[in-house]
Amino acid sequence: MNATRKHILDQIKVQGDLVRQLKAAKESKEKIENEVARLLALKAELGDDAAPTNQKFTLKTPKGTRDYAPQQMTLRQSVLDRIVQVFKRHGGEAIDTPVFELKEVLTGKYGEDSKLIYDLKDQGGEILSMRYDLTVPLARYLAMNKISSIKRYHIAKVYRRDNPAMTRGRYREFYQCDFDIAGLYDPMLADAECVKIVSEVLDTLDIGDYVIKLNHRQLLDGMFEACGVPASSFRAICSAVDKLDKSPWQDVRKEMVDEKGLDGDTADKIGQYVRLSGGAELVEQLLADEKLNAVPNAVKGLEGMQLLLKYCALFNLEQRISFDLSLARGLDYYTGVIYEGVLKGEQDQAASPAKTTQNGESSESESSGTVGSVAGGGRYDNLVGMFDPRGKAVPCVGVSIGVERIFSVLEARAAANKTKLRTNDVEVFVASAHKGLHEQRLRVLNQLWAAGIKAEHSLKLNPKLLAQLQHCEEHQIPLAIVLGDDELSQGLVKLREVTTRKESNVPLTDLSAEIRRRLPL
Amino acid sequence: MNATRKHILDQIKVQGDLVRQLKAAKESKEKIENEVARLLALKAELGDDAAPTNQKFTLKTPKGTRDYAPQQMTLRQSVLDRIVQVFKRHGGEAIDTPVFELKEVLTGKYGEDSKLIYDLKDQGGEILSMRYDLTVPLARYLAMNKISSIKRYHIAKVYRRDNPAMTRGRYREFYQCDFDIAGLYDPMLADAECVKIVSEVLDTLDIGDYVIKLNHRQLLDGMFEACGVPASSFRAICSAVDKLDKSPWQDVRKEMVDEKGLDGDTADKIGQYVRLSGGAELVEQLLADEKLNAVPNAVKGLEGMQLLLKYCALFNLEQRISFDLSLARGLDYYTGVIYEGVLKGEQDQAASPAKTTQNGESSESESSGTVGSVAGGGRYDNLVGMFDPRGKAVPCVGVSIGVERIFSVLEARAAANKTKLRTNDVEVFVASAHKGLHEQRLRVLNQLWAAGIKAEHSLKLNPKLLAQLQHCEEHQIPLAIVLGDDELSQGLVKLREVTTRKESNVPLTDLSAEIRRRLPL
In this protein, which residues make up the domain named Aminoacyl-transfer RNA synthetases class-II family profile (chains A, B) (predicted)? Predict the structure, then answer.
C-alpha cells in the first residue's frame, strides 16, 4: 500500500468516527450530512471507483433550474443571435451587471412579488440578493454612472423563488432578454420603436401568429378613478385586473370585492371597461366617454395611446397590435405605456369555455405575463430616480423577450418534426484505415487547424475504421479524411464525402485548399 | 401595528444602536458601512415605499463585482467570439448549468478553498451554493446524465468570496471559459489537444509572448515521496509548491518547515527539483535520477510527460511549452497532467530581484493561477466518479481560459493606444434638415429596417441638424440620410458619408439598395 493511500485510510477512519459521534449525539441533519459528504469525498479520493460509497443525495439541479444540453444550447444560441440582430438593427449596445445586487437595490421595487427574491446567506460583509429582473439593475447602473441616455440590451439569467410549472417553460432560473431606451425624448417615439422591436423579434423567430396588446397605466388609473376606486387601492385593483389573463372576470370581480374591499357597483363599472379592445376607433370612443373624459389622467393616457397607435401605423403594425383595456402587467414600476406580445395559437388552444373572449388567454403568469405571452414591457419613468441621491429621473421604456417560452415552443416544434440540430461544427474527421497511424493523424490535424478548418479525430491510438465512419454519420460531419500507408507513401490521403460515401485521393500538400473548395457541403 | 412590523421596528432599534456604537468607537469604515447597509435593509423591509426617501446606501455593485459598460462588452464579446472559434475548431459543443448547485455537490471538492463558496440563505427548501468553477458542475452533469464522452465548452460566471485585488483583474464574480474533453481515450491524446487549444487561443488573441508550463501530479507526488515527504503531507506540500509563482523559494521553504512540519533536509531536496524546467532532455535526466526512478509514481509521471512532449512536438508547440517542476496548481481534484499559460511580458515586468528565475513570475494567485497566468487546467480522472452512485469514473482533462485577465490586458492596451471601439453597429442615421419631418423619418426607418439595415434617429420631434450630424461623428456611424422637403417633393433624399461629408441625392425607392452598395464603408 502506498503512503498516500495509507494516509487517506487514516483520515477516513477519523472522519467515520466523527460521523458516528454526531449521529449518536443526534446532531442536526445538515451537520451530519456535511460530515458524511466529507467522508464520502475522502473515500472517493482512494479512487476505488468500484467501492459503492458515493454520495447519497439525489443527483439533480436545484428545484426550478435545469441544465442546457448541447442540442438545447444550439437552438438557444440561434434564437439569441437572431434577437440580438434585431436589437443591433435598432442601435442597441450591450451591458452586463452582476448576478447579485446589494439587497437594498431590489427592496421596494417589485410590490407583492418581493417575497420571491433569492437572498444570499449572510457570511459577513454585504447583504446580497440575486437579481429578479434586468430592469432594476439597469436603473441602478444608470443612476450610479449618471448616464442620461442609452439604448441597451442585456441577455442574462434572473432568479425568482416561484413555484414553477416547468413543463410549461417556467423556471426559477431563466433567461431574460431585454432592450430598453433610456433618455428624455419626445412622447411615444421610443415607445413605438419598442413595440416595433417586439414585432421584428417575433417575425424573425417565425414562431407563429401573434398579437401585441397595448395599454397605458395612466389610462388604467384614470379609469379606476372614473369608476370610483379610492386612489389608495389603485395598485391593488390594477394587480387584480392583471389576473384577467388567467382567470375569468367573475373570479377577478370576486377578488376586487371580497379581498380588496371594492363595492360591487364599482367593480362592475371596471368590468365594462376591461372587456374592451380595439384600435384607434376605440380611443375615439373612450375620449368621448363622459365618465373618462372628466378625469385628466384618463385623457392623458388616451392621448398617449392615440399618438402611439399613429406611430405604430407608420411602422405598418396595425395588423399586429390591439389596444386592450384588460392588459395591466404585474410590476409596480410602470408609469405609462405597457404592452405584451401573445402567441395566438397558444391563446386559442388554452382558452376554456368558462373564460370570456377578451381574457381567455392561456394560464399562468410568467416572466413576461402569461404562458402564451412571449414578450412584455412598458414605460417606467421613475425607477432611475429612486436610485439617484437627488432623485434625478431618467425616463425609460423597454421590452423583455420571453425567451424561455420561445425556446420551449421551438423545442417542441423541433421534436415534432424530428429535426436533429448539429451540436458541433466539425467539418472534417481525420480517420485511420489501419493501426499505427495516430502520429500521422496529429500531423494532418495540425495542418487543418492551422488553416482554420474544424477537425477532430477519435483520440484513440487504433480505432476501428467502421466506428470512425459511423461517428461521422451520427454527428453529420460532412467530410472524412482516411489515412492509410499506401496513399501516404505517395503523399496522398483519401477524402470522403460522408453522405455520398464518394472518395477521392488528394495530395497532402493541397489538402486544406481542397477541403475549403468542398465546404460548405 | 402588525407583529411583523413590530418585530422589524425592534430590529431597527437594535441595529441603529449598533451603528451608533461602531461610530463612537471609530471602527473601520467598511465595518460601519456594512452595518449601515443592514440598517437600511431593515428600514426598507418596512415597505414605506411612498416615503420620499431615496436610498441612503452607497450606490455600488457588491464587493468584488462590476458592471460591464458597452465599451467593455464590445471588447469582451470579440474576445469570447474568437475563443469560441478555437473551441469549435476542436469539435467543442456548448452546455450551460445553473448558477447555483445543491450545496452537497460542491462540498469536498475544493480543499482549502471551500471557505470561499457563496451560500444562499436558507429560505425553506433546498440548501444551495453558487458555483465556484465550471468543472464540478460539468462532473455533476456527466454523472447525472450518464454521459461517458463529450467535448464541451462552457462560458459563464463563477463566484468566490475571495479578497480580490480588482485593479489586477481579480474579482468575486468573474467569467470562466472552459473546454474539457471527457471520455476514456488513449494516454495524452486529449491532454495534448488541450495544450494545443491553449496555444491557439493565446495566438488568436494576440496578447503577447507566452509560455505554457507543464507538469504532472503523479510526478509531483513521486518526487515528494522520493524526497521523504510523509504521504499525509503530500497535498499540503503541493499547495506550498503552488505558491512558488508568487513567493521566492526561501518563503516557500519556510512554510514547509515551520508550518507544515517538514524537516529542512527534505525541503531542500524538494528545492533542488522544483528549480528545474526544460523539455524532453529534462525528462530523460529525471528518468535517470536514482532517487526518482525508484518511485513508481515518479516514473509513471515522467513517462506521461515524455508522451505529452512528443505529441506537443507534433503540434509544433516546442517553442511554446516548458516542463516545469515548480508548477503545482491549487485545486485538489487534479490527478495527472497540469498546465498553465503565462504571459512572458507580465512575468518579466513583475519579477523582483529577490526571486529566482524559475519562480519569478508575477504576484497573486487567481482563477487560473497567477496574475500573469491566463490559462490553466489539467487532468481530473476521479471527479465524475465522486458523483456517480456506483462510482463509475469518466476520465476528464480540460482547460480554463483566464478571460478576465485577458480582458484587463486588452483594455489596458486599448486605453494606451487610445482605441475607441464602436459600441453599436448602426449603419445609417436618419436625420431631419428642418422641423416637421418626424413622420417621414419613421417611414424611412421602417423601410430600412425591413431591408435589414441598422438604422436609428434622434427620437426627438425637431432635433437640430448639427446635433444629429455630431451624433453620427461621435458614434462613428458611416452614413446619414438627411431628409428635407425640397428633396422629398422630388422623391429624393440626401445620402451623406459621415467621414468625408460627401453628399448625393438618392431616390427613396432605391435607398436601401444604394446603402447596401455603400456598406461596409
Answer: 64-431
In three-state secondary structure terms, A70 is helix
Question: What are residue A101's DSSP bridge partners?
Answer: A129
Strand order in the sheet with A492-497: A455-456, A428-432, A479-483, A492-497, A503-507
Distance from CA of A52 to the nearest CA of B (A): 5
Kindly report, residue by residue over A216-235, the tens digit of the pLDDT: 999 999 999 999 999 999 98
Three-state SS at A220: helix
Reported as half-sphere exposure (CB side, CA atoms, 13 A), residue B228 has a value of 10
Mean pLDDT value of segment A285-310? 97
Q: Is B318 on the interface with A (CB under 8 A)?
A: no
CA proximity to B197, closest of B111, B47, B320: B320
pLDDT of A170 reads 74
Minimal CA separation from B363 to chain A, in Å: 26
| Contact at CB, A92 and B424, closer than 8 angstroms | yes
| Per-residue pLDDT reduced to its tens digit, A476-517 | 999 999 999 999 999 999 999 999 999 999 999 999 999 999
Asked if A444 and A493 touch (Cβ cutoff 8 Å), the reply is yes
CA distances, A141 to each of A97, A156, A332, B106, B172 (Å)? 8, 15, 19, 32, 19
β-bridge partners, B154: B178
Q: Is the pLDDT reported for residue A418 higher than 90?
A: no
CATH 3.30.930.10 for domain B70-416: yes
What would the mean pLDDT of A421-430 be, rounded to a whole number? Answer: 94
Instruction: Please check whether residue A358 is in contact with residue A347, taking contact to mean a CB–CB distance below 8 angstroms.
Output: no
Rg (CA), chain A: 30
Beta-strand relationship, A373-379 and A369-370: unpaired
pLDDT digits (tens, 9 = 90+) for B128-186: 999 999 999 999 999 999 999 999 999 999 999 988 666 566 789 999 999 999 999 99
Q: Residue B215: which H helix or E strand, with range?
A: strand B210-216
**98-137 in chain A: CB under 8 A from chain B:** 98-105, 107-108, 118-123, 125-128, 130
For residue B361, what pLDDT is reported? 33
DSSP category for residue B423 = S
Backbone angles phi, psi at B334, to 5 degrees: -70, 145
CB contact under 8 A, A45 and B446: no
Closest CA to B238 of B160, B297, B172: B297
Query: What CATH code would you report for A428-518?
Result: 3.40.50.800
Q: Do A131 and A99 form a contact (C-beta atoms < 8 A)?
A: yes
Nearest to B34 by CA among B49, B23, B46: B23
Query: What part of A 144-163 touches B (C-beta under 8 Å)?
Result: 144-145, 150-152, 157, 159, 161
CB-based contact A104 B200, cutoff 8 Å: no
Is the bond preceding A507 in cis, omega lying within 30 degrees of 0?
A: no
Least Cα distance to B448 among B424, B427, B474 occurs for B427
Q: Does A61 touch chain B (CB under 8 A)?
A: yes
CA angle, residues B356, B360, B365, in degrees to nearest 5: 140
Helix (H, G, I), strand (E, B) or coil at A281: helix
DSSP string, A45-61: HTT-TTSS----S---P
Q: How confident is the model at residue A97 (pLDDT cuts 50, 70, 90)?
A: very high
Residue A300: per-residue pLDDT: 97
Percent share of chain B, pLDDT over 90: 71
The residue ranges of every structural domain in chain B are 3-45, 70-416, 428-518
Please state the rounded mean pLDDT for residues B332-340: 93
Residues 237-296 of B with CB under 8 A from A: none
CA nearest B389 in A: which residue? A54
